[in-house]
Amino acid sequence: MRRALIFLAVLCLIAFAIDAEDEEKSGLVMNYYKDSCPQAEDIIREQVQLLYKRHKNTAFSWLRNIFHDCAVESCDASLLLDSTRRVLSEKETDRSFGMRNFRYIETIKEALERECPGVVSCSDVLVLSAREGIVSLGGPYIPLKTGRRDGRKSRANVLEQYLPDHNESMSVVLERFSSIGIDTSGVVALLGAHSVGRTHCVKLVHRLYPEVDPALNPNHVDHMLYKCPDPIPDPKAVQYVRNDRGTPMKLDNNYYRNILDNKGLLIVDHQLATDQRTKPFVKKMAKNQNYFFKEFARAITILSENNPLTGTKGEIRKQCNVANKLH
After folding, report:
1. Contact criterion met (CB below 8 Å) for 193 and 252
2. Has 68 been annotated as catalytic?
3. Quick one: which of 139, 188, 315, 325 has the fewest CB in 10 Å?
4. What H or E segment, with its residue span, contains residue 199?
């Protein structure tokens, strides 16, 4: 009995040491603000819910933000920085086409500043607002670590090296995500974010003009042509197709059924359903939403912990769109 108790104690110590090592490695911990700003996560949740009631599309924005920020070198809110006279903002690059609602990140940050000035980073706001946006869209609640600090520079000049385009080959897409620790099933789950929101005609007319891509489901083509009547659409016009006509406001596994039925809007959607490396996971997620949610949560967690700035690195921005002034 005594030996068994000693053995259990040793196992507990080993488990504790592994957890501590993981936290030390990333510098992130669960409930980082429990002493410095106990209400932080509640404030972010409340603000996201209030904004969602007024502007449903904010939830899509929060979800897209985490991909575009955390996949590019570091999860440090560099995406949120405005352009300066010398440096282009990531928000203004082609890869960020259609992204919006950045001003509402400031709304969340202002609420936090009223409660706990200079404590909660914009990178944690970005990550936690994504989590709450996922919940607003009917997705899983994902426990995420906090303690990130904010970067001071835009990464617009390297963005294309990290973020795959919607026309990239599946090999490139898998390779880009693999470089930050996300495996094939994780990539398939992350692209399930295409279950919600909409795609601007600019991004899909090459599949309609001058000839319709024969890979598209003919029953879906008429709707796409109706929504995108111009071969060269105006990027500023409100011309778009909903990613999922069945449940456009719900993060669910309907996306996988659609792409298996050749109703994916983007080339990457079509490739996901046809590439032999990804197709088995697409089929499994199409049949099992719990599996999709489990893999989606795992991939979002990995993404959110990609090379964060912690400790004394970076800063806590006063405003999310500008770096603090150095005196």
Report:
1. no
2. yes
3. 325
4. strand 198-200
